[in-house]
Write a structure and sequence with these properties.
The complex is a heterodimer of chains A (482) and B (445). Chain A has 482 residues and is α/β, with parallel strands linked by helices. Chain A contains twelve helices and 24 strands. Chain B folds into two domains: 274 residues, no CATH class; 57 residues, no CATH class. Chain B has a ten-stranded mixed β-sheet with strand order 2-1-5-7-9-11-13-15-17-19, covered by helices on one side. In chain B, strands 3-4-6-8-10-12-14-16-18 form a nine-stranded mixed β-sheet. Chain B is globular. Classes of the chains: A alpha/beta (482), B alpha/beta (445). β24 of chain A pairs antiparallel with β19 of chain B.
Chain lengths: 482, 445
Amino acid sequence: MTSSLKKNSANQYTDEKYRYGFTTSIESEQAPPGLNEEIIHWISEKKNEPTFMLNWRLKCYHAWKKMREPRWSSVHYPPIQYEEIIYYSSAQKQAPKSLDEVDPEILKTFEKLGIPLHEREALAGVAIDAVFDSVSVGTTFKEKLSKLGIIFCSFSEAVQQHPELIQTYLGSVVPYNDNFFAALNSAVFSDGSFCYIPKHTRCPMELSTYFRINAAKTGQFERTLIIADEGSYVSYLEGCTAPMRDENQLHAAVVELVALDRAEIRYSTVQNWYPGDAQGKGGVYNFVTKRGACRGYRSKISWTQVETGSAITWKYPSCILQGDESVGEFYSVAVANHFQQADTGTKMIHLGKNTTSTIISKGISAGQGQNTYRGLVRIQKKAAQARNYTQCDSLLMGSHCSAQTLPSIEVKNPTAKAEHEASTSKISEDQIFYCRQRGLSTEDAVNLIVNGFCKEVFKKLPMEFAVEAQKLLAVTLEGSVG
Amino acid sequence: MIPRETQPLISNAELEKILISFESEDPSWFHQIRQIAREELKNNGFPDFKTEQGSYTPWDKVLLPLKFSGRPIERFSANTDLLSSLDWNQIESVIGQWPYRIVMLNGQYSIQHSILPSGLEIESIRSVLKNSLNIPIQSMFSKLNLKELGPVLNLACFKDGFYLHFKSNQCLDYPLVMLHIATQAQDYFSCSHNVIVMDEYSSGTILEYFISGNEDQSSLNSEMTQIYLRPQSQLAHAAAYLNGIHKNQWSFQTVEQQSGSSFSSRIFILGGAWTRHEQVIALKQPQASCGLEGLWMTQDHQQAENYTFIDHQAPNCTSREKFKGIANHDSVGVFDGCILVRENSMKTDASQENKNILLSSNAQIYSKPQLKIYADDVKCSHGSATGQLDAEALFYLQSRGIHPEAAQQMLIDGFSREIVDAIPWPEFKTSIWNRVNQFYKGNSK
């Protein structure tokens, strides 16, 4: 009945080009491809780092050398040629001091992306630490934050100005030899964001960074470290759009969160890297290690992610619930369309008493997409009265996509309670028919149903992100019905 | 994870010795398969804590009896000493009285003790393998997946087992009881391999009991059963593991189902030091259905593991899984279930449920309910819950004047009843209840 209609709309949207696909031509200063001790010395020197950083990088490099690339995930990709990657690229030779010094080309790029720095500053009240390639371009609202004692700056700046904090917390959540990609990141990371919220301070605005891969063949290795001291609160947003590339680009980031007594960190991500074209060519490999440690009593870490982009998404934002009565949350929407592959989930490690964790994961697969939820809930012996609730729902659109749910539940305390629930379904003909009968187009009907499916997670996103996420979801899935 | 350098559990020289002790006269076609399995064993060795499959198992303890298998196996075969030492009254007090039984003594098929129904084709697997005219059995063995340790170890070592064939339209009037008895004087490893073929429209019930004494010596028994269900055949299967406290049992079951066939399985792990039951079920043709249920109760240092893999290869198939477990003292319970729905298996209806109770602070439970779905028009769900006995229910019962221990017993009783009450064979049910009640006694001490 509606097959011709469907086809038309499908073609219309499948052919829609990646909206954020363009590159800026700025001369970048970059290291030669490949990785060896010299390159690490070179990077460290370029960034004018203290010795402890260089030693740490070298330690990580030697650990990485001994490791093998993990193969246990259900994602498939051609072998990565680590010798051909350029590990460092700086967009400009000198770091700018104010927005006026920023290269106009870069500012234009942000303009095209729909995030003009100037406007954002005034309109949304969001401080943006924009990472363009690997070096920070401009940091706004810094003064306002510094009045409260909040440190929000690029990672390299933090290394220079707050070495004691870096030395204490760097690698304390994700150890240098944690996994292959984390070790690689630790050895070569170029920049990232650093945030410290002092005691009893509530960060008055949503902190945010925009990441963007630019120069060709450049792997980007960011590192984010957020420390929330006693009784503080911070909400951090991370959003990504990357220009169109034919060659696969490796993105191996590390995010470490530390929450002390009664502190709360909310970390939200909308990820929209280039997913590759409809034939599965190109796209970003997004291999990220994200982990938060709830160190203090009643501390809380909440991960919210909307993963619509990347050819391959491979990440497990995790919580280590060390402090008594600490709380871990994970809300995720992962979409895999065309040939995208998503292997994502979380780890909740309960160590303290009365710790609770909630996991809500929504996976949507369309086209040839592969979506995997892989999660671990471990309740250790001392985690009395620990509580976990997990819900994983998968939505399948089309007969060539797949959904896998691979949870692992380990309980070692008799007073703990862990629950897991999962279901798999498709958008039924009846639902579409009902909506069409009410005058909605098939596309709109699907959007409506998908939005309803993801509502639980979107509710957890900050306002402006929720809108963006909904739009992204609609664009990603358009043309996949039928 | 930091890689650990560890000594292999069993060195290659030891393995060579073990394999030699299990050398037997095989027909040439089978010899090839056995060689493949042996090569696989030599190349890949035994798993350790590093691998995903082996991460929950205390391999060092489990595989210990293997090292002793270098001794001549004949010492433990069905010799006259063992025959006379079997006390049938005692055995029947555990399992009840049944009209038909097949007795496997230390992994060897014992004709003397068996009572067979007339008309049923049952033979020793060795004689079936030697029959060169039996082409189907050759293809059954050549299709086995030799990647997992369970079947590889079994194929490399097994010497005997039985072959059971239900002809078309054949129905058994009473359940066929299969009695696996382990009587031993010292540490040993035994291994058996069985094949069950059910032709069109046949139906039958097979109840397996695993019993052994409480001797001090540890032993490992590996048992593998291949089950083939032709169109419209029905097999009801149940296994009760009532082994002694030093017995390690590793069962591996493969089931291949054709159109309209149905398979039901009930697994009760209520004894043994370490018991692992693995089921691989392939629903090969439309309208096939399978239902798996299980109950395990562990205490002291026991470990019970249930592995299920249901492979939906055809449309319109149904599968149900329900596994429950209770772990007390220092015991460990594992459930690892996977449902795979292949691309063209539309209208699949699959569900999986796992519920566990922890009674002590040293007990551990690992649950891995997995779904792998490659088709969109399917109904699949799984659920897993692990916790303690409901504190409010306990309080309620106590407020009615019921002793805490009795209250706890009532709740455990209710928890296990869901599985036990569904058993359709009264005598089997009684034997399971007896064991479950023993668990209470052990629990309250």
